[in-house]
Write a structure and sequence with these properties.
3-stranded antiparallel sheet; Extracellular membrane protein CFEM domain-containing protein; globular; 3 helices; 151 residues; signal
């Protein structure tokens, strides 16, 4: 009986420490490892970690509401169950390629929808097509700007 109790405790500890075990997404995002506040790197780190947490939370079915960014950083989350939209010149990019935004309330991040132009900037991935400005194309120009649109 004593051996069984010890074995149960050991298995519980091993399961809790197992790095391969699936972890539940939590509403709190740890940004303590970011560089000191007041720097551009701090801002980028906090936004990146917050965005990643939001996507993980949504994928895990945890409803924590929209993420809260530090003062001065615009909200970047979009889509999802609230169907939050992005501002002008932005698109709702869905980093989880397994989520089909045509049939599911996927969570995304606002990103520039610009494509084409002088540098022939592509859209983020194959799920998007660059739709060039009609007037520019009709004029016969080869460096037309466009907007990424979901296929």
């Amino acid at each position: 009986m004593k051996t069984f109790a010890v074995l149960t405790v050991l298995l519980s500890v091993a399961a809790a420490l197992n790095p391969l075990a699936q972890r539940q997404a939590q509403c709190a995002c740890d940004v303590s490892k970011c560089p000191p506040a007041g720097t551009e790197k701090h801002c980028q780190c906090v936004v990146s970690l917050t965005d990643n947490c939001y996507v993980e939370q949504t994928n895990a079915g945890v409803d924590c509401g929209l993420p809260t960014y530090p003062t001065g950083i615009p909200e970047q989350a979009c889509g999802g169950s609230t169907n939050q939209t992005c501002g002008a010149g932005d698109m709702c990019y869905f980093p989880d390629k397994s989520c089909d935004p045509q049939t599911t309330a996927c969570t995304g991040l606002c990103a520039s929808d610009f494509c084409g132009g002088n540098f022939d900037k592509p859209c983020p991935d194959a799920r998007w097509s660059c739709v060039l400005e009609d007037a520019c194309v009709r004029a016969g120009n080869t460096d037309c700007d466009g907007k990424c649109e979901l296929n």
